[in-house]
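Bumping with the actual sequence this time:
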Amino acid sequence: MKEILKRNAKDQVFKNLLHDRKILAQFYNDLTGRKIKPEDIKYDTIAKTIVKGQEEDIAFQIGSIFIILIEAQSSWKIVNIIRFACYMFQLFLNFIDDHIEEIFESGKNITIPAVEAYIIYTGSRDLPEEVSLKNFPNQVNSMINASMKIVSLKNAIGYVEQYIKFSMKETEYYNSNKRTKSDIIELIDYCINNNILKEYLIKHSREVINMIENYFTEERRIQSIVNDEVNKAINEEQQKHKIELEKEQQQRKIEKQKYKMELEKEQQQHKIELNKEQQKYQIEQQKLKIELREQREKNIIDLAEKLKMSPEEIANFTESSVDYINEVLDKNKHS
């Protein structure tokens, strides 16, 4: 987005500068070394049509030559040659439509217009002075070709060189975040004092300041929108993370509750089993106690018969006494 804004600001200055036929004539002469006059330049319908939709590009006619100036850009893209090829073919199609009767009139010679294309490069890369479709590997042997000249600071003179210097200086201010109105005025003063588009900037300084200031203002507005969108996205992401965290915490709470219930269930089951064991033990103890009592009663009855005493009398003896008497009787019996 910033690159588009930056390019648009330069394009506005570029088109405003070359809108003046006198400057455009000098600009073209500096590009080509020719000596055309402002009145030689023609803005016809065909030239305007082929660059329709590309406000940054300029097309005009000098005699039978159509000239296309591609936007002044600090970033180079090889696709520009394809853009020019599209212009060229559109120009031929428009020419055929305008001269259809002459073309099909027997014996009539038709001069097909020549096409020249230049790209004004304001970046720092070292680019070739000419590029064509043949630069694409799969187009080396193609029967269709289109070529355009690249003009940069290393091979520019006159108005072209001045415009490139102005554009590079504007980029320097932009990249240094010097974007206030006073910074823009400082930029214009610098260029005037260093003979960079001096005549044009003295005459159109207010327009240029407004163009650059407007795009800086628009850049700040769009940056504000971008920041709002970024903050919105961050808030949405934070809210999403919060919901996921709450969901995760809720899931952990459910799992913890489930574990607690399972543990309580296990403890309850263990308690039930323990109670069963205790009850079983108590029953066995009770059973053993009954068996011992019954055995003692039997022992008393047996001893009473041996001693010719009543069981009630024997019952007063201690258990150890009963056992001792039985033991003595048993020995006497065997002896």
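The tokens above came from a reply further down the thread. The beta strands are 41-42, 58-62, 65-73, 114-121, 130-132, 147-151.
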